[in-house]
Amino acid sequence: MCGIAGIYRQKGVASEALAREMAQVLAHRGPDDAGVWAEGPVALSHRRLSILDLSPSGHQPMAFPERGLWISYNGEVYNYLGLRTELEKLGYAFYSNTDTEVVLKGYAAWGEAIFTKLRGMFALAIWDRSNQELILARDPYGIKPLYYARCGEDFVFGSELKSLRVHPDFPTGIDQNSLFFYLRHLYVPEPRSIYSRVSRLPAGHLLRVKGNDHNLLKFHNPPEWVSNTHRSYEDTLAELQGVLQQSVKAHLISDVPLGVFLSGGVDSSAIVAFMRSAGVSTIKTFTIGFEGLPAYDERQFARQIAKHFQTDHHEVLVQPGIGKFVQEGLITTFDEPFANPAALIADELSAFARQEVTVALSGLGGDEFFAGYPRYNGMLWLEHFSQLPGAIHRLIARILELMPRDPDRASFLQRLRRFVDGAKQPPEACYDNLMSFISDETAKQLLSPDVVSELNEDAYLPNSTRTNGNLLEALLNLDQSTYMQGDLLTYSDRTSMRHSLEVRVPFCDNAVADFAGSIPGKYKIHYGQLKSILKDSIKSLVPMGVLYRKKGGFRVPINEWLHGELRPLVQETLSQRQLDEQPFIDSKGVKKIIRDFYEGEHQYGFILWALLVLGVWYEKSKRC
């Protein structure tokens, strides 16, 4: 795993020194080696975290001078040995044992078709001298990041925003629609960034840059969802077990120590179970917990799995100092507002695991491909509710009007109101509302009138076009392309790479995703049981208590922190003086949120947390 950066200059010579500086700020992504190559209009730079072939043969940028090709590559391709064999049969010789060289020579042999052959995670840049063309490409599910922008005369790209910000002409204008989305969802949506003129390369896409032309092309199309209703449940289950086993085995390839993030939930337990089935004798597992906060502590469940599989188990407790991390770590890690508090836990767990291993497997993606969130049941129930006579809708709505209003969106009455209101909305709007932490109205009250007047509220409304009329599959596709990519995979990458740790996600494997798309919805959710077939796939391997306990995840005591350790930071960052310096914020709306939260009237924890992160980010961004 690595960090990449580069410059393409339409006219003139690209700056090698600037490309080197762009890579230097990514040193945390690649502490083992650094390289830069420049020729005429292009400069590629690289930071290397050695995982395969630890020798100098893996140095990047890597060249194939006979074909006029150079590559700067970040990722792991798990089928690279098979592709290498194919290339050798075509007459290509290899001097390293890296997947980088396979990708480079695969491009020479097959052109852009190579990207459809890669099984793994990647973000890369290839300079094609003969065509005077720069090619950027990103893996099908956006596991690895890649940003790009026009900075003055230069087209620049990099693994993180901080590498682009090195450029003296970096465009700092804020994308107001991204800001609005952030306040509602706690992250900035793909393929945008917080900056209006900076984008992320969409997952499964390539970008051709030649002269002043930029051509964005999609090379990966998820298979059209066609439920295989003729395949029995037993056959589907057996095939799923084989696909998962093969994926986990493929993700074990490494020349450095490897472990697993273990929460004790279904997904991470499945990873451990299939590792053991693959013949891994020593499995290092890593878990994080909270002392004195049992509602947030899942160590007991992780210990159960660790004991069952006799893993080499390691635990760490969340340490004091969260305020310092928000100021010094969180903002520099993401370079833009990011307020899913699970990132705080992921960062500490990554730092802890890195003391023992260089690669960690994660169960991320299991919920999005196999239907693990309770909201899926809610939307399916809503589909039935919407078909009831209008008189019943009106009666329930009237009853709710007589009940007291609670702005806490997590309260039962508010969730019930959103459920009933959802019956009146298109599925896209309803699901977006369910996924948000605050309402449109509340978010607008926090923004200045000038910002609100220019908002395009539909700019990031997800497209839930149903395949064969199937609502569940549409919801899964939505989560895979929005929440999974923009939130979960983002914090997984940034927090792990901050500590030079590579995280792999076997559930986001091409073969797993393709097969999951062919499984009928009734097998994924069976009589309300979420992830039914996935649970059955490991039922004979793990303790039953693990399969059917209440869903957990990275839950964080954000309200407790805001009332305690983070309160001085809130008072400083969201003071009237500081708020007056944020032109996009309405200070009256913010002050009301702060007052209500600390008076205990409403649980505005996530809203306040998002505003705190935004304030810290803005203050730091002014100084960069």
How would you portray this structure in words?
This protein has 624 residues and is α+β, with helices and mostly antiparallel strands. It folds into four domains: 2-218, 4-Layer Sandwich (Glutamine Phosphoribosylpyrophosphate, subunit 1, domain 1); 233-306 and 340-370 and 489-547, Rossmann fold (3-Layer(aba) Sandwich); 374-473, no CATH class; 558-623, no CATH class. Helix content is 44%, strand content 15%. The chain is built from 29 helices and 17 strands. It has a six-stranded antiparallel sheet. α14 runs antiparallel to α15 and α28 (587-598) crosses α29 (605-623). The two termini are 27 Å apart.
Task: State the main characteristics.
624 residues, globular, six-stranded antiparallel sheet, Rossmann fold, Glutamine Phosphoribosylpyrophosphate, subunit 1, domain 1
Outline the fold blueprint.
Blueprint: E1 2-9, H1 16-24, E2 33-39, E3 42-48, E4 62-64, E5 69-77, H2 80-89, H3 99-110, H4 114-117, E6 120-128, E7 133-138, E8 147-151, E9 154-158, H5 161-165, H6 176-185, E10 198-200, E11 205-210, E12 213-218, H7 233-250, E13 258-261, H8 266-277, E14 284-289, H9 299-309, E15 312-317, H10 322-334, H11 342-353, E16 359-361, H12 366-370, H13 374-385, H14 390-402, H15 412-422, H16 427-435, H17 440-445, H18 449-453, H19 471-481, H20 483-497, E17 502-504, H21 510-518, H22 521-524, H23 532-537, H24 544-547, H25 558-563, H26 567-573, H27 576-580, H28 587-598, H29 605-623
Parallel strand pairs: 13-14, 13-16, 14-15, 16-17
Antiparallel strand pairs: 1-3, 1-9, 2-3, 4-5, 5-6, 6-7, 7-11, 8-9, 8-10, 11-12
